[in-house]
């Protein structure tokens, strides 16, 4: 079980809070019956950004694989505004919290200057065969620290 993220001193709707960026194309099939960006598309956009960050942290190509990989244990999305087709959505990523075996990532989804959603996801580095969480290696911890906003850099902690 992972610990809850520490209170976040950073405004997640502020573009300057994010250290890594991913651009996603808004597709026609990402829309709901009312022509708004569907909630599933928000989750997929967050997933794309999360996979990019976690793949870079492990020094592997996108797609992962192997006996050791990241497992998502929690995802929260706050929907803040509507998104529409056509267009692009820029997804900012940052690290909110670093634990002993887990990392909580924050995302901001932006269409132009409008933050349409914010999200957090907690992931655990795991030995998939043994079904056990693993401590974060020093190189992964250092990479994750580089993605922390200065205002929440003190949320690196021992624990999950």
Automatic annotation (TrEMBL):
The alphabetized UniProt keywords are: Hydrolase
Give the matching Pfam families.
4HBT_2
Q: Source organism's superkingdom?
A: Bacteria
Entries under InterPro entries matching the protein: 4-hydroxybenzoyl-CoA_TE, HotDog_dom_sf
Q: Name one GO molecular function term.
A: fatty acyl-CoA hydrolase activity
Give the family, as the similarity comment puts it. Belongs to the 4-hydroxybenzoyl-CoA thioesterase family.
This one is known as Uncharacterized protein
* Organism from which the protein derives: Caenispirillum salinarum AK4
Classification lineage: Bacteria, Pseudomonadati, Pseudomonadota, Alphaproteobacteria, Rhodospirillales
């Amino acid at each position: 079980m992972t610990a809850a993220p520490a209170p976040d001193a950073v405004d997640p709707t502020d573009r300057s809070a994010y250290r890594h960026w991913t651009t996603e194309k808004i597709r026609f099939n990402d829309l709901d019956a009312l022509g708004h960006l569907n909630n599933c598309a928000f989750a997929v956009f967050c997933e794309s950004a999360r996979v990019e960050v976690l793949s870079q942290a492990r020094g592997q190509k996108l797609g992962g694989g192997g006996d050791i990989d990241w497992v998502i244990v929690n995802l929260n999305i706050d929907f803040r505004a509507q998104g529409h087709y056509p267009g692009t959505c820029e997804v900012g990523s940052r690290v909110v919290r670093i634990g002993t075996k887990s990392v909580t990532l924050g995302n901001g989804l932006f269409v132009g200057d409008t933050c349409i959603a914010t999200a957090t996801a907690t992931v655990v580095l795991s030995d998939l065969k043994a079904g056990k969480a693993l401590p974060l290696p020093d190189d992964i911890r250092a990479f994750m620290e580089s993605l922390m906003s200065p205002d929440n850099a003190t949320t690196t902690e021992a624990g999950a």
